[in-house]
Amino acid sequence: MMKVKEGDEDAFRVLFERYRGKLMRYIFGMIGNYSVTEDIVQEVFLKLFLSRKRYKPVSSFRAYIYRIAHNTCVNFLKSRRYKELSHLSIERGNGNVPPSFDESEEERERIEILKREMKNLPEKQRTAIQLALLEGMSYEEIAQVIGCSYNAAKILLFRAKEKLMERLRDEKM
Question: Which of 75, 49, 60, 71 is nearest to 136 (CA)?
């Protein structure tokens, strides 16, 4: 990111290629609509590029870009546009099926089972477990993305895992 900050366009392309698929998966998990996910990913990279001169390497870059993505998604979910879109998506049933991002068929199947069970978790728990299980983030990175303390991130993740395990156990019976 420091090269991007200095104006290196090739470095920005590398960041885009490295994080695009991962952000698509994360954002789709929050939004649930593929066409909107594409728009939000573009918006995240635009925000990253426009704010490149203000970037300070305080935390990991991964946590930094996921924080931008998380905030952009939360803002979208609060927006009037989301309410209109969710109404149209229910009526028309389009835009909700994601293509394969960058995972194998077996990995996609596991992710789909988890996502199905994660839908009923509270938003912060759902976000915490998605970042931990699907994106491989540490407690510290999760705390930075969500905007909470390290201990709060641990508690959110513990409660989310507990609820998921209970639901998965119930499903097998």
Answer: 60
What's the CATH number where 142 sits?
1.10.10.10
pLDDT in tens, 50-100: 888 888 887 789 999 999 999 999 888 887 665 555 544 433 344 444 545
What is d(CA 52, CA 33) in angstroms, rounded to the nearest whole number? Answer: 28
User: Contact, 59 vs 147, CB < 8 A?
Assistant: no
As a whole number, mean pLDDT of residues 117-144 equals: 86
Q: What is the pTM of this model?
A: 0.66
Per 3-state DSSP, the chain is made up of helix, strand and coil in percentages (nearest 5) of 80, 0, 20
Indicate whether 111 and 172 sit together in one domain. Answer: yes
Q: Are residues 90 and 154 in the same domain?
A: no
The closest of 26, 21, 27, 52 to 40, measured between CA atoms, is 27
Domain span holding position 122: 103-173
How far is Cα 144 from Cα 135, in angstroms, rounded to an integer?
14
Nearest to residue 32, comparing CAs of 96, 85, 109? 96
